[in-house]
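Reviewer 2 asked us to include a model.

Predict the structure of this chain.
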Amino acid sequence: MSATWITLSRFPLLLASMVGLYQASAAARLIGAGLLLVGLLLDTVDGIVARRTGQASLAGGVLDIAADRTYELVLWVGFADLGLIPAWIAFVILTRTTLTDAFRSLGVAQGTAPLDQHRSAVGRFLVRSAVMRVGYSIGKVTTFCGLGLVWALRGTPAGSFPAGVAAAMHLVVALALPATVLLCLLRGAPVIAGGLAALTRAPLRTRPWSRSDPPRPWPAPARLPAPPRAAPRDSRS
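Predicted model (structure tokens):
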């Protein structure tokens, strides 16, 4: 299976997982949490397949980021709707993601991959270093799957094994959630700062012509060069 199809398969998995998490049945919510884990892990699988098979490309990188953004936005908003996280977290993440994707589109339009648009050492470390990328991925998987499992196990009898698992996941999420939000903001900061700096450096452009403007004069036709003169004939011949 190609890396593109692996990335595309994450979208129906996300839909199925959210449908499961919103069900009243505990079994359906557990299935939804399991599908969520599979969809998040495929984010790593598609990148490995793309690099090993030589399928890495600008379009593939943009599609991978689009899948990541869809998961992040849907899950942050969904868990806020379920009452598992404060609503302000979802609002902050939505704002950060909108700005970063808008500024990254400027570089993509010029043929530069989203992760290759940073010149400073700090920006490259925060956005594309293995430490930050792996740390953020682990934080997202832990936070999202932990919240999904806590929600799936809600209402279990006190003192039972599922209730103990839910209590343990509460502690894990309490540590992973703020760390994940912080990493998300740190990785977005260089993108937003670079985009704002690019906008301030951009030259002013004139407004494009519209139908309400006066007609433009046609440019004068270019003069064609005069044909070469023929050499005079010798009358003595």
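The mean pLDDT is 83. Helices lie at 3-21, 26-52, 58-81, 87-109, 121-128, 130-152, 161-201. We have added this to the supplementary material.
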